[in-house]
Amino acid sequence: MYNRPKRNWGTIGLVSLLGVSNISLISNLSNRTNLPVINLPVGPYTTYQVDASEFGYKISYMANDPKVLNSVRRSETPKGFFGNKTEKIIISKEFTMNGEITNSDTPKDGSSPTDKEIACYKIEGSGESTGRLVGASVGVKAAPAVTNIPIIGWIAAGWITMFGQDKGADIGGQIARDFNDC
Length: 182
Prior knowledge:
Blueprint: H1 9-30, E1 47-53, E2 56-62, E3 68-79, E4 85-96, E5 101-103, H2 115-142, H3 153-179
Antiparallel strand pairs: 1-2, 3-4, 4-5
Helix pairs in contact: 2-3
């Protein structure tokens, strides 16, 4: 008739014993309470970093951080004869922990530029504007050579003119500084 297989009670007992031991091991590990408890004093100006690995942990804590707060405000004001151009203005301030406010637009040491420095600034600006004009003239003369390039000729012509302006301004400003010992 029907052959019934023999049950191996030893195997069933061993598997049951291993299952119960695994369950008790997992519950024992999950109920551990000897892990370190770290109470860091956290406030509005504190930072900390915790690096943990299997070898231990490291804590970097810094109070009163940042020591200097920066505030930057950007705005645009109308400029030009008809007001159709805009000038971008950036106002930045630094606040320290004791409430001091410093403007970064003013020199830090309280000094102002000397008359020679002001004259050098004016000379360099004049040289840059003259150099920009000469560079644009050279770029306009060179632009027709690239206008016949298909598809991008008009872009290349404009790029050559602007490149000539920028390089002319750099060279003109440098020459003006060199000739006037600035």
